[in-house]
Amino acid sequence: MRSENEALIVIDVQNDFCPGGALAVTDGDAVIRPINAMLDEFAVRVLTQDWHPAEHHSFASQHQGRAPFESIEMPYGSQVLWPDHCAIGSHGAEFHPDLRVDRAQTIVRKGFRRDVDSYSAFFENDHRTPTGLEGYLRARGVDTLVLAGLATDFCVAFSALDAARLGFRTTVVEDACRGIDLAGSLRTARADMRRAGVTLA
Asked: Which pLDDT belongs to residue 69?
């Protein structure tokens, strides 16, 4: 068992990000076995869950003439437009059935505000609106984080960068992550994480 001050943060292992899902990450379900094994090692265990209203503004379907994976400018900055995914209450938004959800102590839902996307487990994409995860971890006495899940170059990387900025010692377990790699985004995310002091294990 790890120290009480260490937490495992499992990012968005949901049906829509796994094979057959609306925004499937290649080999996304390959993260489940290593994550399940790690869940037994940590005293503090958190899952995050993408949780979008059906008309979320990050969906390409909400922008006439736009296609998935194009980028547009939102009031909070550049936004990739995604296929509709992880709609509140849908099968796609559910955790993958093989993930040991029963081991989680709390679940953080993000992206439920229609006008702003949320990659990070800590903040919406405006980088100001908190999810509440930081407060939960501080209250549990956590100062060290290990991150795993989907996708390396978006929600995992954004979470890791915010964690490092907030002063948490942060490690990303790459064997327990998979990336989208949209126009070189995986290489960029790795470089950004290293530069921020995140350990890639």
From this structure: 94
pTM for the full predicted model: 0.96
Contact 122, 129 (CB under 8 A): no
| Spatial CB neighbours of 1, under 8 Å, sequence gap ≥ 6 | 41, 42, 43
Average pLDDT of the segment spanning 161-174: 98
Which residues form the catalytic set?
12, 110, 155
69: left (phi over 0), alpha (psi -120 to 50) or beta: left
Do the Cβ atoms of 156 and 121 come closer than 8 Å? no
Residues in the chain: 201
Tokens of 44: 């503090």
Among candidates 5, 81, 97, which has minimal Cα distance to 43?
5
Alpha helices in 9-151 (DSSP H): 32-39, 133-139
Answer whether 47's CB lies under 8 Å from 105's CB. Answer: no
By DSSP bridging, strand 144-150 and strand 106-110 are unpaired
**Angle at Cα 113 formed by Cα 55 and Cα 140, nearest 5°?**
140
